[in-house]
From TrEMBL:
SUPFAM superfamilies: P-loop containing nucleoside triphosphate hydrolases (SSF52540). This is ABC transporter domain-containing protein. Keywords: ATP-binding, Nucleotide-binding, Transport. It comes from Microbacterium album. InterPro entries: AAA+_ATPase, ABC_transp_ATP-bind, ABC_transporter-like_ATP-bd, ABC_transporter-like_CS, P-loop_NTPase. GO terms for molecular function: ATP binding; ATP hydrolysis activity. The keyword ATP-binding applies. Transmembrane segments: none annotated. Belongs to the ABC transporter superfamily. Residues 3-251 form the ABC transporter domain. GO terms for biological process: transmembrane transport.
Length: 261
């Protein structure tokens, strides 16, 4: 499977009569299962807009988002359902991704039922427990009846990851998924996400401000500036021989927590 952006652009209408904003400008990239692609760039460079187009949450103004060569804009019915299941989002918890009134069992169970991933109450329950344990919430049964308010920040983020992987996606688009977490918690959640590439073959488009995080987990790095992809390539290359001045500045601005491998 391959998820691709081909020359995608997004132009937002200007707020209150202002000039239109070109949030993404002819960006091309791709991600396959098992690959960990990090997207970095300063605030406002278009990372979230690109992510939302890859997820089919907003339409591209120009260009195409393709799943295995098929334009998601023209997908209907079963094909659309297949896309919705195969490409999952994990967003930042403070953005209100979890309903505070729903227990973990309900939050994940409704996704299992929507995508018909299991049959009967016992089947759904087993599927939820399996997903919780895959993201390190063990034993899974202990988390089923909890409300989001009864979980730590790291546990909530793990529930969001469980809700994404419970439908057996091939690709996860994660936008600042660990940015709000404390350093030690962040490291654990990241390890879990990285493990899912190895154990389940999940591919990631992983958006982050956090360059030490990129250093730790990415295979490939995409650098955005003012809506454009200005540089992309294998992590080692981007970190050791950045071609763009902008990338160099971005790397220099980040606190170095560990030496480059
Ligand atoms: N709904 C919208 N309407 C108008 N302009 C928008 C909208 N969403 C984003 N923008 C603008 O598009 C540009 C790109 O925004 P985007 O959120 O994609 O950046 P980002 O790289 O994710 O930034 P951050 O790192 O701060 O999350 C910015 O100039 C932003 O102000
Ligand atoms: Mg953003």
């Amino acid at each position: 499977m391959l998820l691709e952006a081909r020359e995608v652009s997004k132009v937002y209408r200007g707020r209150r009569g202002g000039a239109p904003v070109v949030a993404v400008d002819r960006a091309s990239m791709s991600v396959a299962p098992g690959r960990f692609v990090a997207v970095v760039g300063e605030s406002g460079s278009g990372k979230s807009t690109l992510a939302r187009m890859l997820l089919g949450l907003i339409p591209a103004s120009d260009g195409h988002v393709l799943l295995d060569g098929e334009d998601i804009a023209t997908m209907r019915g079963e094909r659309m359902a297949h896309f919705r299941r195969s490409v999952q989002a994990v967003l930042q918890d403070p953005a209100g991704s979890l309903n505070p009134r729903k227990r973990v069992r309900q939050a994940i169970g409704e996704v299992v039922r929507l995508h018909r991933m299991a049959n009967g109450a016992a089947g759904v329950r087993a599927k939820i427990v399996e997903a919780l344990e895959l993201v390190g919430l063990t034993p899974g049964e202990q988390f089923l009846e909890r409300f989001p308010g009864e979980l730590s920040g790291g546990q909530r983020q793990r529930v969001l990851i469980a809700r994404a992987i419970v439908v057996d996606p091939e690709i996860i688009v994660a936008d600042e998924a660990v940015s709000a977490l404390d350093a030690s918690v962040k490291a654990g959640v990241l390890r879990t996400m990285r493990e899912l590439t190895e154990r389940l073959g999940v591919g990631y488009v992983f958006i982050t401000h956090d360059l030490p995080v990129v250093k730790k987990v990415a295979d490939e790095v995409i650098v955005m500036k003012s809506g454009r992809i200005v540089e992309s390539g294998p992590k080692a290359q981007i970190f050791s021989e950045p071609r763009q001045e902008y990338t160099r500045t971005l790397l220099a601005a980040a606190p170095v927590l560990e030496p480059v491998a």
